[in-house]
Amino acid sequence: MTEPHLGPATAGGMLRAARERQGLHIAALAAAIKVTPRKLDALENDRHEELPDATFVRALAQTVCRTLKIDAKPVLDLLPPAPTVALAPGSGGLGTPFRERPGRIEPGLSPSNVRPLVWAAAGLVLLALAVYFAPASWWTVFSRAGPTAADTTPVTFTAPVPVAVPAAVEAAAPAASASIAEAGTAPDTAAAMSLQPQGGPSQAMVETVFSAPPAEASSGPAAVAGILQLRCAEETWVEVRDARGQALLSRNVQPGERVGLDGALPLRVTIGNAAATELAFRGQAVNLASRTRDNVARLELP
């Protein structure tokens, strides 16, 4: 009995026959070479149009031959040749000397576009160097350049302000003027008030001149009204808060100034310069030495 004629051998038939002789399933072979069984089936059945191109077909066939350990040359001879890539026109043959072709210039990076950026960056660098290395005398001249004395002279506007003055104040004005004259207070060291009735007994023109504080009239903190009195021989920061936490006093008390305070008890007192401060509560002097630390006195008066 003769075997049936199978026709001319093909590359796919040779690969399928070699696989079947080794008892290897197509899925196992596809997993071994990491391709899908569909592509391997197309190769074994010579359906090359289902594969990407002739180069892929030859590479896949060579991989199968290497896995099955068979000679790849007879199989590759039966496959369509891989397409050749022609050289660019005018490039010549292999022995032609190489000539560098001009590179592609991006539209956004052309020399005409880059040149202004380069000049701008160079200008900024030069400006920074000029500022850094500038002589110190330049900055002295600039710092002295400013408004002149004529521009900074304060301008005082004096204008009478109409206010309503009670009749009792109008009646007391002559007596106040007489007492100021008797005390011999100079106009530039005391607050002068001139009352000029206009349009009736309840209208007057008030002009106030601020000057230095009046001279001391007594020598004790009890000279001012209030349950708490203090007097400072030197400039001292003082803070007094009442039972509700409201600040009755929180500022620097000037030398010789007397302060009298009233508020809800207890009063919490903080004195920044206890050694130069005299304190009295309800007319009795308070000893600050026992409540002072680092010349700062903190006490609470019931």
Description:
- This protein is of the alpha+beta class.
- Among the domains are: 11-77, 434 Repressor (Amino-terminal Domain); 163-206, no CATH class; 221-301, no CATH class.
- 33% of the residues lie in helices and 17% in strands.
- It has 9 helices and 12 strands.
- The chain has helices spanning 11-21, 26-33, 37-44, 54-68, 73-77, 111-132, 136-144, 149-152, 167-183, and strands at 161-164, 196-197, 203-206, 228-232, 236-241, 247-253, 258-261, 267-271, 277-281, 284-285, 292-293, 296-301.
- The protein has a 5-stranded antiparallel beta sheet, with no helix packed on it. Strands 7-4-9-10 form a 4-stranded antiparallel beta sheet, with no helix packed on it. Strands 1-3-2 form a 3-stranded antiparallel beta sheet, with no helix packed on it.
- Helix 1 (11-21) packs parallel to helix 4.
- The radius of gyration is 55 Å and the shape is elongated.
- The protein starts with 10 loop residues before the first helix and ends with a strand.
Key phrases:
302 residues; alpha+beta; 5-stranded antiparallel beta sheet; 4-stranded antiparallel beta sheet
Radius of gyration: 55 Å
Mean of all residue-level pLDDT scores = 74
The CA-CA distance between the termini, in Å, is: 135 Å
Trace the largest sheet across and list its strands.
Answer: 6-5-8-12-11
Low-confidence stretches: 1-7, 179-220
H-E order? HHHHHHHHEHEEEEEEEEEEE
Number of helices: 9
Beta-strand share of residues: 15-25%
Shape: elongated
Total DSSP E strands = 12
Global structural class: alpha+beta
Work out the helicity level.
25-40%
Sheet with the most strands, sense and barrel status:
5 strands, antiparallel
